[in-house]
Structures are given as C-alpha cells and as structure tokens.
Amino acid sequence: xxxxxxxxEMLDHENKMMEKFRKERENKGNIxxxxxxxxxxxxxxxxxILKMIEDAGFRISAIKKVFLSKERAASFxxxxxxxxxxxxxxxxxxxGPIIAAILEKNNAVADFRKLIGSTNPEEAAEGTIRKIYAxxxxxxxxxxxxxxxxAIIESNFHFxxxxxx
Length: 165
Ligand code: RTP
Ligand code: MG
Description:
Blueprint: H1 3-27, E1 31-36, H2 38-42, H3 46-55, E2 59-66, H4 70-76, H5 86-93, E3 98-104, H6 108-116, H7 129-133, E4 142-144, H8 148-158
Antiparallel strand pairs: 1-3, 1-4, 2-3
The structure holds ribavirin triphosphate (RTP) and magnesium ion (MG).
C-alpha cells in the first residue's frame, strides 16, 4: 500500500471524526449565526463587535469576510420578501463586504439576541451591540438568527463543513 493512500485514508478518517464531533456539539441547538453588516464593517467596528461577542462567552466556530451578491442577499432574506423594506435591505446587505460567523454557546439564539438588542437602536438596551454600534433601524450593525432552525439554515448557507471547527 503506498504512503499516499495511507495518508489519504488517515485524512478521511480525521475529517469524519472532526465532522462527527462538530455535529454533536451543534445538534444541541447551541449555535447561532451572525453577520456584521456593511456599515459596521466600513466603520472599522469589526474588532469592537467581535470583542463584545467573545467577552459574552460565545465561541467563534467559523468566520469570514465576504461580499454578498444581490442574488445571495435576496436569497438569504427571502423570508422577508413580502415586507416593505425588502428591496432596501437587499441593496444594503450587498452594498459592501460583511463578516459572517457561526457562534457557539448554551442557549445561543436567545442569549445572542439579548446581546445585540432591539432591531431599532433607539429601543435597544444600554450596553447592547446595537445600542453602541447601530446607526438606524435599517443599518443596525449586526444580524442574529431568530430560532435554532434558522441558525442551522443560515450557517449552512454561508459555511461548508471544511470551514467550521
Ligand atoms: P436581523 O434579522 O438582522 O437580526 O434583525 P431583526 O431580527 O432584529 O429584524 P428583522 O425583523 O428580522 O428585520 C431584518 C432586517 O431588516 C432591516 N429592517 N429595516 N426599515 C425598517 O423598518 C426595517 N425593519 C427591518 C434591518 O436591517 C433588520 O435587521
Ligand atoms: Mg431577523
């Protein structure tokens, strides 16, 4: 048996074990998906927002800077397509690069929505990410999943299994 073949089999085995391990962790509904939105990226607030996220006890299991095409943004926000702000939202989210990330923690979805605060920064509680970094109800610095089910759908939309650990 050639060395290359043995190495290949070992890598396959390792990849399978890693994926099994990751799925076990994620199966418990312990993940949420976030984006740092274009205006917050443009304002150099990536570091400040990620620090708040890590300080609140979330583990970043996947992260990347990515430019969403209009088509990708439209598809991501398809659930909102009947809402009056849909076109504006799609234009805004495809107007500059974003940071996409998967976050792990117990009770991740609810705890993260608490950390980011209300959609409208004027209503967001003191000390929340939106209170500190959002500029308006539309340009509100961050996205957070609204359910365990959507956290999984949104994470899979942005990341392959080779990009999450
Ligand atoms: P997100 O999904 O981004 O975490 O925000 P959310 O749950 O707090 O708010 P949602 O109702 O899901 O709305 C999605 C995003 O659409 C924009 N929006 N604009 N102009 C408006 O009245 C309005 N309302 C919502 C915001 O960017 C919001 O985060
Ligand atoms: Mg939402």
